[in-house]
Specification:
The chain is mostly beta strands. The protein has one helix and twelve strands; from the N terminus they run ββββββββββββα. A hairpin with a 5-residue loop joins strand 8 and strand 9 (109-113).
Length: 166
């Protein structure tokens, strides 16, 4: 996707986490394979928004807001923490729309309000898709079509796998 001045975007930064973090911002300019971004929540020591030149492959539009009806223990989501969206897993459901989450790459548990939690979505070929349990099912179907059309049931592909080790 070619970005234009004013587009609301998120920039992937892999500085400290294995999965990376998505920082909200807007496009100041775009030339070639690079964009100049003004970050929304990151400021310098004078309080001015930080601007940075980044590779276009590390930029995506802000995902559409998708409301989840109910979060459950074990759900993987994106969590807004310290000016960016990070991946985490819900460890406990509390009252008043509060959740205890373990952010990936950390052993620490932190409490977040539902407003700081969103469904994971992937930007691929200029389209958004929800990442989750449906993705696993689609992957299984793809394997079935790729390797063996003669199977009556695509789940047969996995019948001889050893049980997962704990």
């Amino acid at each position: 996707m070619k970005f234009k001045e004013g587009n609301l975007v998120e920039v992937l930064r892999r500085d400290h986490e294995p999965c990376g973090s998505w920082f909200p911002g807007s496009v100041v300019s775009a030339r070639g394979n690079y964009c100049k971004i003004r970050y929304k929540s990151v400021s310098d020591n004078k309080g001015e928004p930080v601007m940075e030149k980044v590779r276009e492959e590390d930029v995506r539009p802000q995902p559409p807001h998708k409301k989840r009806k109910r979060w459950m223990v074990g759900d993987v989501a994106e969590i807004f923490d310290f000016q960016c969206w990070r991946e985490g897993k819900i460890a406990k459901v509390l009252n008043n729309n509060l959740f205890v989450v373990r952010l990936f790459g950390s052993i620490q548990l932190k409490e977040f309000h539902e407003s700081s939690i969103r469904i994971q979505q992937a930007w691929h070929n200029n389209n958004w898709s929800v990442i989750g349990k449906v993705f696993v099912f689609l992957l299984m179907l793809m394997l079935w079509f790729t390797f063996n059309f003669s199977l009556a049931n695509p789940f047969q592909l996995f019948k001889n796998l050893p049980p997962p080790s704990v």
